[in-house]
Amino acid sequence: MITTLAIVAFLAAYILIATERIHRVAAAFWGAAAMVVLGQVTSESAFFSEETGIEWNVIFLLLGMMILVGVIKQTGAFEYLAIWSAKRARGKPFRVMVMLVVITAVASALLDNVTTVLLIAPVTLLVCDRIGAPAIPFLISEAMASNIGGAGTLIGDPPNIIIASRAGLSFNDFLLHMLPIVVVLLVVFIGLMKLMFGKQLVYDAERAADLMRLSEKEAIHDRRLLISSGVILAGVMVGFVTHSITGLDPSMVALLGAGAAVAVSRLEPRDYLADVEWSTLAFFAGLFVMVGGLVHTGIIADMGDWLTDRLGTNWLLGSTVLIWISGALSAIVDNIPYVATISPLVADLTHGASGAGPESLWWALALGADLGGNATAVGASANVVVIGIAARNGHRISFWTFTKYGLIVATVTIAVAWGYLALRYFALA
Amino acid sequence: MRARELAKPFPTVTLETDALVAAATMGERDLPGLVVLDKEGRPFTVVPASQVLRFVIPGYVQDDPHLARVYDEEAADRFCQKLAAVTIGDIIGTKRPDDYDHLPVVDADAKLVEVAAVMARNRSPLALVTEGDEPVGVIRIGTLLGKLLPTTAEQVPDALPDYPASSPDQP
């Protein structure tokens, strides 16, 4: 009876998160509280259990990166880079779009997606104004590029951080398994951009000359901060990559980087803490407790056993189902709670198994959850943020305007990613 | 002291007035805003100069201050050209505020604190003074502060230091 109540409470909280009837932090706290009241969670399991407790590594990795971003954004480097690259493209709209999309994807692999689009969208509007190009195709492409690029690294997208933590995967594992396919997907996406938006992008030599008159160097007004934060960011990346040598977890590396950035920047706390999304961190904490309670009921283990009976060692079928279902669900609901819920199930399925087949399930989950977010206007936070910025600047992107392009991009990229899984982990394994 | 004693005639525009003309008037006469009248000649609202700037400067530049630095002088001219194609109504919206409290209007008998409260609530640099339906004039915020704080004003030194502070060898 108690188990049934706990499952019902979890589903109710999940529905509240998905439908956003109440704020997602409140919904996650509500779910966590229900688990405590129903005896599925204790302070021991919530705060200290690696299996069913709050993933402190995830929370502190996010906190460290948010602080680091808060310092880096003060440098004006993004604005410099975007205008410089647009000028290198000589103001030709499609080339400019490719440059901005590549910058967005690379930045999203290193920073959080929402921050990336918050930084790139204003300068994109400026560039579009200058070259007389429609801003909407640029902004939609950047939101999608941030979701694709974010899939490439452990720190690029919150679902990847959760998966890494649950599966015990390192930063380098993501570089080896996710980055190659993300590079391919980016090339495919650029091809799709040409097909979807090519006709809307017309070159105007006179307007291009306007772009060339912009002075990108003026965007940087504190060279010392630019150099020092650039060095720190590079150091953080080295720290992630050398985890196996130093033994420092990504969360520790990010916190050290944040501390160093704060120390050298001489910024006020209100400046470098402005980008810390406390509500997101609180949401994660509530979510982990909620999911931990569900795991404690035993339903996840039962589902795992059921699936293991059906799938056996047919990992290809498992990966195929997982990538497409994850893609479809992530298009509709927030991929963070989805991945937090499904990760224990995947951990159960792969428990005791080793080799490319079982490992492919984790990559299927990551690719499906990250790429599925592109399918609809509400599929990923970056999409919602870009649509908001566009609206504030007089460019209305309706749900269907975004979704008609998003469905194409999500379907094609997930199909390519599925081909990669089938080829790398099964045909060539 | 009552509002009528401080009220002075003040330039007005209508919703149909060319925005460039209105902005140029504010610039040339160093006005913090203008009074907007409706078709019947009644006060509609006050348009502060800062609202004109918010219209002229693109939202993305207001969001990201780094971007303001990358423009050349020509761009500033082009921003201002936006005003040539619009009216005051386009800048402030033509929907009359539902609530009369949204208008910085005071009665001619209002005390100075009442005038100050209306200006503060509406974040307006001007207050319109009326007697019944008849316009009496306008009070500017500088005029109001000068009268509202006479005691404090006497304590202020003759000249506050300039920004930037002038060096001794400068005239």
- What is the fold-level CATH name, i.e. the topology of chain B? CBS-domain
> Which structural class do you get from the secondary structure elements of chain A?
mainly alpha
Number of strands of chain A: 0
H/E series of chain A: HHHHHHHHHHHHHHHHHHHHHHH
Low-confidence stretches of chain B: none
Name the assembly state: heterodimer
Mean pLDDT of chain A, as a whole number? 90
Main-sheet strand order of chain B equals: 1-2-3
- How far apart, in Å, are the first and last alpha carbons of chain A? 46 Å
Largest sheet of chain B: 3 strands, mixed
Helix share bin of chain A: over 70%
Beta-strand residue fraction of chain B: 15-25%
Biggest β-sheet of chain A: count, sense, barrel? Answer: none
Number of helices of chain A: 23
CATH architecture of chain B: Roll
The span between the termini of chain B is 40 Å
Shape of chain B: flat
Largest interface (CB within 8 Å) is between: A-B, 22 and 14 residues
Radius of gyration of chain A: 22 Å
The count of strands of chain B amounts to 6
- Return the string of H and E elements of chain B: HEHEEHHHHHEHEEHH
Protein model, in words:
The complex is a heterodimer of chains A (429) and B (171). Chain A is built from 23 helices and no strands. Chain A is an all-alpha fold. In chain A, helix 6 (93-110) runs parallel beside helix 8 (135-150). The termini of chain A are far apart. The mean pLDDT of chain A is 90. Chain B is α/β, with parallel strands linked by helices and 171 residues long. Chain B has helices at 3-6, 19-28, 49-56, 59-63, 65-68, 73-81, 88-92, 112-122, 141-148, 150-155, and strands at 12-14, 33-37, 43-48, 105-107, 126-131, 134-140. In chain B, strands 1-2-3 form a 3-stranded mixed β-sheet. In chain B, strands 4-5-6 form a 3-stranded mixed β-sheet. Chain B starts with a helix and ends in a 16-residue tail after the last helix. Classes of the chains: A mainly alpha (429), B alpha/beta (171).
